[in-house]
Amino acid sequence: MSRTQPTPAMYQRNALAPSLLAAAVLFVAPALLESDWFLTVRFVATIFAIIIGWFAFQAKHWWWMPVMLAIAVVWNPIFPFEFSGPIWSAAQVAAAFVFLGAGATIKTPRDV
């Protein structure tokens, strides 16, 4: 009986893990809006947006770069925008879905 080797994947999704982590934090973010923990949410969203933007650049998925740059600017903790209310709360969830979309679509060919 011979064993067949599994076919290696043709693509790798480098942005998937960071996008899942960022989305998880942003899904919880509406509950943290009025607490001190929201500063951590801002750091996580900004750092992962920059990382995923870099992976988009490497994968030549240019259309994700301005989206990730916009998230990095809006959620930046250094010069924060003082947004509040239900629209800002909904923006947290919308950004989480954007991260999930980016993580699912950014892929690079694997060198086999």
TrEMBL record:
KW Transmembrane (keyword) present: yes
Keyword Nucleotide-binding: no
Keywords: Membrane, Transmembrane, Transmembrane helix
UniProt cross-references to Pfam families, sorted A to Z: DUF6804
Domain of life: Bacteria
InterPro entries hit by this protein: DUF6804
Parts of the chain that traverse the membrane: 15-33, 39-57, 62-81, 87-106
Protein name: Apolipoprotein N-acyltransferase
Organism: Microbacterium aquilitoris
Lineage: Bacteria, Bacillati, Actinomycetota, Actinomycetes, Micrococcales
